[in-house]
Amino acid sequence: MEILEKYAKVSDKLSKLNKEIKFLEGDSVVQEYRVLLTLREVVEKELAALYEEKREHEFEQCNHIWVHSNEKGKQESSEFCRCIKCGLNRGLLQNELGYLNYLIKEEQEMYDFMLKHVVYFTGIELNIACDYDLAKALYQRIKEKNPDIDDATISQYLENALADMNKIKVSPDRERIRAKRLLLDENFNRWQSKKVK
Ligand SMILES: [Zn+2]
């Protein structure tokens, strides 16, 4: 097909589409739809602003249970100490200043929160360092089974469970089953914990 002919054909296709769109834009349902899209954008922004406030409230109200992490990975060079209840990462305060340029949005919010408030060191500190996801999964599992358990008792349970995992070796198959039960990745392999000095 000649280029001129091709061009004319596609150009024709576009004007037909434009006509159809223009026709629909006159329709009241479509107009209403566009108003709703704009409104949704406004409400989404409102919700995002409230989310930050909600997180701050959670950090403030939480009676934290801090766990030191010995995990290698995304924060290898930094101290990692995080609450298994609200997720606040106190380790962010101990980072070298250069690292602060690379915080993701949520970390930045935590960092700002901790600078503004002096309440963030309250709560219980586990004397066992372990993978954060593991500690959180164990916490949730214990909490599920004992909804009324207090923080001191749950911390004790957690430390015992982690110590047992250190002591009792299980087969890779059993580890996979255990990971699944805790809703961790099937290939989770960071079961070991150690005492905090
Ligand atoms: Zn907390």
Secondary-structure map:
Blueprint: H1 3-25, H2 28-61, E1 65-68, E2 81-83, H3 105-116, E3 124-125, E4 128-129, H4 132-145, H5 151-167, H6 172-181, E5 194-195
Parallel strand pairs: 1-3
Antiparallel strand pairs: 1-2, 4-5
Bound molecules: zinc ion.
Pick out the low-confidence regions.
73-78
Give the distance, in angstroms, between the N- and C-terminal Cα atoms: 78 Å
Spatial strand order of the main sheet: 2-1-3
Radius of gyration: 26 Å
Name the overall outline. Answer: elongated
Number of domains: 2
Largest sheet: 3 strands, mixed
What is the helix content?
55-70%
What is the β-strand count?
5
Task: Provide a count of the helices.
Answer: 6
Going by helix content, strand content and strand pairing, the class is mainly alpha
Tell me the series of helices and strands, N- to C-terminal. HHEEHEEHHHE
Give the percentage of residues in beta strands: 5-15%
* Bound small-molecule species: zinc ion
Overall pLDDT metric: 88
What would the keywords be for this entry?
binds zinc ion, mainly alpha, three-stranded mixed sheet, 6 helices, 2 domains, 197 residues, single chain, elongated
Q: What report would you give on this structure?
A:
By secondary structure, the chain is mainly alpha-helical. The chain folds into two domains: 57 residues; 134 residues, no CATH class. 56% of the residues lie in helices and 7% in strands. Zinc ion binds next to loops.
